[in-house]
What we know:
This protein is about 35% helix and about 20% strand. A hairpin with a 4-residue loop joins β3 and β4.
Amino acid sequence: MRTRLMLLLVGIAVSALVFSHGHAQTQPSQAAHRFQPIAPGVYSAIATGTLNVGSNSCVVVNQDDVLIVDSHISPESARVLIRELKSITDKPVRFLVNTHFHFDHANGNQVFTAPVDIIGHEFTRRKLLGDVLAKGTIFAESLAALPNQIEQLKQRAAAEQDAAAKARLDQQVRVQQAYADQVKEVKPTPPSVTLNDHMTLFRGDREIRLIHLGRAHTAGDVVVFLPKERVVCTGDMLVAGISNLSDGYVNEWPDTVEKLRALDFTDVIPGHGEPWKGKEKLDHWQAYLRDIWQQASKLHDQKVPAAEAAKRIDMTAHKNHYPTITAPGVAPIGVVRMYDVMERRAEQN
Length: 349
């Protein structure tokens, strides 16, 4: 177990470097979100770097109300999102959809009180009613790693000679320090309305489909599909880079993405990173998943421990599509998870 936790910490640190570009103080001096229009009344809420929001949110402004997809990494970031929504609409938030249970997407749930309905998969509700804050969970281990992450940022800032780069690092230090305080108030709040495979909301003339296509990033991924606008919000089933595999079903994920491809969409709002158009990136991600699963399976069959396998797996064939890949080796947390799936230790997770 101790080895597993160490691997989790390493993987979390890698994820933080990939997705935590710059964050900020509890009361930022500038907006924490950039609301990028995707279709009439549909926005991707993307962090500007002045607050740790953890993930993207999707905002759907309907005839009389608003639906938000994902509540961010802390209650404070959710409150800021609600406040900054006033820059695009004065309509009330009526629905929050959880694409999955991970803390960077659901830790703001508690801010969305009645009459807001929080909607998610049955699996997501079960996980958020469980021990997501307990010692050994990915959230708890991420918090345990936070002091070291902050100290490393301080050291990098102190050594940085370029003034602009130093300012960015100083901001990241301030933001992560603020985040360490903000998460102390987290109270896991599960969906109050659940679905198993699909649900459709009709708000004025807008149709909003909530769909569980299969296991992928977690066992309870939900995508939000707007058929008229041809927009899909994917959570971490798709991100702009390489998604975290720590709770994934890598063997099933490509088939789930194939079901996603069958939907008639043009615009993708991912769980992290900038939105994009088209389906070409689905090909890239399916290829990556199939390759890493094949390599991990071979090493597993050879009885190579997960930590060593993580060093040996070579994904550089995909570096043209994923520039963060610069050498062989992958995050150990993903290999631990794949081994668990192969050995059927993850079937009920």
